[in-house]
Amino acid sequence: MPPDFEARRFDGREAVQVLVDGSDTVVQSAAVQLAQMPLDSSSPAAGRAVRQGQISVVSFYNPQRRSSINIVPGLVGVILTMTMVLFTGVAIVRERERGNMELLIATPVSRSELMVGKVAPYVLIGLVQTSVVLGLGTLIFGVPVAGSLVDVYIAAMLLIVANLSLGLLISTRAQSQFQAMQMTFFVFLPSILLSGFMFPFAGMPRAAQWIAEVLPLTHFLRLIRGIMLRGAGLLELWQDALALLVFISVMMTAAILRFHKRLD
User: Fold this and answer.
1) Backbone angles phi, psi at 55, to 5 degrees
2) Using one digit for the tens of pLDDT, what is the confidence trace for 84-108?
3) What is the pTM of this model?
């Protein structure tokens, strides 16, 4: 419960007080609209009919109801998903099309070392992108960072490596850079629509939620919003961090097994 909870107790004027997680502006707006509707039921708290204006909505973590508070943290994940998957999605294919695959085959490095070498340079690029978005969000939109900045970057690192691993797997399957880009968009669009960035996760059909749980962006949004808006730590959000680690292990292992140091 937020530290200012005691200061937001009933003042005797409202019959019902609704506590809303303001980090989700969609749910917050729905609660405000419902509070404006007159109700005919009786209020146990006030002992009289609940009429319009007697329902008070208290928004924690975003009392000003600013949409940027919710959008900017999610935008970090969207940008990282769009760029990181695409970068490594065309990596192996580009080497094959440019005729550099023969040089890679002649090198003494193993398949796993080659995959890690393809991922490592893009990690720094992803961290720079994270810093730029967070900096602009803080300076221009005043988005707060209630939690630890170190936890924010650790969460971003997990998403970066997860997307890079997925891109490597796509790169081992694609036959051309155009095909790799098309496969990347098949990952990007479900991530935007199902992760909770555009629509509330709890309001989606059960089947859509099952698909969303497989996507790295879904778990990253829970991490970044929990850290930046609610001041939570990674230990409190360990389930989503663990899900990203499992995703990284599965995707990287599959990419290494799929890649063969030969031209066919």
Assistant:
1) -105, 120
2) 998 888 877 887 777 766 676 677 7
3) 0.79
